[in-house]
Amino acid sequence: MVSALYPGSFDPVTRGHLDLVERALPLFAHLTVAVAINSQKRPTFTTEERVEMLREVLPDSDKLSVVTFSGLVVDFCRQQNITAILRGVRTVSDFESEYQMALTNRHLEPSIETVFVMPSAQYSYVSSSLIREVVRNGGDVSSFLPPTVEQRLRDRLLHAES
After folding, report:
1. What is the pTM of this model?
2. Looking at the DSSP assignment, which residues form a beta bridge with residue 8?
3. In which order are the strands placed within the sheet that holds 3-8?
């Protein structure tokens, strides 16, 4: 069976991310959730904090691991003998950008396939940036985040503004 990589910033990890992992686990022999290190972005949480949160909320499974990576996704896949990239597609605009990225990755490494998975309808409009904005404005995000992640996000965003 095929091993897959689920790359992302996971800043923070949402129930939508967890939904995608649950949907993907039966499809692959192994799923690697990879937190991207991107020096161009200013994340809310450090790479180490994002990895820690993922490990706290993901199911305990021999078929699942959490790592960090930098650089091109296809290069990391090659190094790890991973032959599929998992991507979530929530909206048409998501599909357009993900499709462009998938075609670029296919050009760079034709042996690696991109697999698109749609989230459950209840998470189809949720994004980490939207959740951060709701928290900054005092809104309820409990249906979108695991409780430990919600508490960390509130502590980080509300403490930073105090």
Report:
1. 0.93
2. 35
3. 64-69, 30-36, 3-8, 84-88, 113-117
- CB contact at 8 A, 13 and 6: no
* Domains of the chain by start residue, with CATH: 3-123 (3.40.50.620)
Q: Give catalytic residue positions.
A: 17, 41, 90, 128
CA neighbours closer than 13 Å in the CB half-sphere of residue 98: 20
Residue 59, token pair as written in the block: 């199911």
Give residue-wise pLDDT tens across range 62-105.
Answer: 999 999 999 999 999 999 999 999 999 988 888 899 999 999 99
Sign of CA dihedral 105, 106, 109, 113: positive
Q: How far is CA 43 from CA 29, 64, 77, 100, 138, in A?
A: 31, 24, 24, 24, 20
Tell me which residue has tokens 């998992």: 86
Amino acid at 15: R
First to last CA, the chain: 50
